[in-house]
Amino acid sequence: xxxxTEYSTSSxxxxxxxxxxxxHKAKRALRKRRKLEKETKQLIKQEExxxxxxxxxxxxxxxxxxxxxxTLEIFGVELERELRGEADSGTKDExxxxxxxxxxxxxxxxxxxxxSELLIIAQELELEDHQSRLExxxxxxxxxxxxxxxxxxxxxxxxI
Length: 160
What we know:
InterPro entries: bMERB_dom, F-actin_Monoox_Mical. The chain is mainly α and 160 residues long. It has a domain at 47-142. Helix content is 89%, strand content 0%. The protein is built from three helices and no strands. Helix 1 (2-84) runs antiparallel to helix 2. Mean pLDDT is 83; it is low at 1-18.
């Protein structure tokens, strides 16, 4: 009897002690999950800020490029008038004016290529931002238990 009582007491003590350890493990897992979620959100914010800074830099470069193109356009119109004899060319000879005009055209083409590259980079940034938002939305949808989701939620998750 004594051994049976000790056995039952010790087994009930073990059960009592194992439950807190399970809750402790659950708490630890929950803390770890929350910490991971927080770190993930911070990384997402950092990536968004990087994309924002890059987009702002691209916007500034595009504005500078546009100003440079306007300046070249004005200079080109004046040079064409001089070549046609509509304006006073001063001491410039025709060969020198043609050389300047060809250099102007080359510079303008170079600026147009650079503008195209910047627009492609800007489009890539928009796509990366869109992808990031979709990934975040998907994580939020997947965090909800499937039993709590209705058909619309499941379809939206599948679409994402």
